[in-house]
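User: Structure tokens for this complex, please. No commentary.
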Amino acid sequence: MAEFVMPQLGADMTAGKLLRWRKNIGDRVQRGDIIADVETDKADIEVEIFASGVLDKFLVQPGEKVPVGTPLALLREEGVAILSAGTVSPLARAATAMAPLPAAVPTPVIVLPPPVVFPSPGRLHISPAARKLAEEQDIDPASLTGTGPAGRITLEDVQRAVQARTAAQEPPDRQTRMRQAIAAAMARSKREIPHYYLSTTVDMSRCVQWLAQENARRSIADRLLYGVLLLKAVALALRQVPELNSIWKEGKAVPSADVHVGVAVSLRGGGLVAPALHHTDQQSVGGLMKQFLDLVQRARAGSLRSSELSDPTITVTSLGEQGVETVFGIIYPPQVALVGFGKIAERPCCVDGQIVARPLITATLSADHRVSDGHRGGLFLAALDRLLQEPEKL
Amino acid sequence: MNREEIRAVVLRVLSRIAPEADLSQLQPAARLRDQLDIDSMDLLNFVIGLHKELQVEIPEADYPKLATLEGCVSYLGSLQKSG
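Assistant:
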């Protein structure tokens, strides 16, 4: 019997709320099947399973919020354990290991509030109606300050206390929770990761020209955005400086065998997510563009899959469209690097001793100094520049 | 298709790209990018949507003509006439 647990979908996730099961007890599931929907602070996620088997038992019911790592269901299969080595991708294991797992109990521990102990009647100066409401609402009258004659606790005093408690207990909305989640991840990053920053200016002339020619011959639905050239170039440059494509785990960097570039996507209404474009280095720019379009659309519609949030090995963020010239990004743990791009702008550029106008972009690298040094980071940016001079080979 | 019908199509496609926006407040001569916070991917989806709805070919070089609501209606109207 194997356990399917609440996955950790990014460093900023500590718990998730099960929204619904997509499968039933007794259903056979395949690795990669979406079997549940989970609500996180950032989005509703379609959660995939990382092993095959038969669903034997649900341990958590829709509506329950449980910590990352809590077993959600049991899976029955010919000796295959979901969380045993080899059945879960190393990245998924790394992501799960980022936060301490809760105690291995089959169901979440429900912490009940301590019972309210009321003082014996007669000790408080309180109206009968106020006392009745306080009892109904589990409010200790002794904690209230009476505003009636001679400090008598009135019905209004208790009503105010009920309202205050309700306001305090009301869960923050999705936008607030997303902000809190981003704040926690970014604060952790700045606290734990010794960042260093490098930048370089890249001549985008060849990319711009190639893209114009390429898009002229492509159908509307198959057209490319320059952003996809940047993503592919980052992925290929990582092959030359692979330590930047690592995950920080248990005090050391673990190189990732695959390149899954996370793309920072701003959400309409605020906040952002950075889901993965899987195997970014192995796809054609056309294939990558289709996946990119689909990913952004689903990110904004709130229908991302769990692997897209747990798998990124590096993040790319581009703020050029907002007019930004240079991005100094904060690394998203447990990743060890982030690449930023500013806007493409025509600027004076010295070519063969002549000053000419060229479309230039500033590329920046934020990297973890525990894992790489400026020399290697510089080699990465140089490789990125070289790759962008030959867009037809991307 | 007259200008009003084209305008309705444009607004319908825009509503899929910026579902949270109140399109009745759009200024016809102001840039859509600024009013709706749309990026290049939104623009590409907008062009794909117009292509599907109106069966028109929009070259990339003509994207600047789609900068405003008024521009969209005029440009798409001219495409329909020439088509």
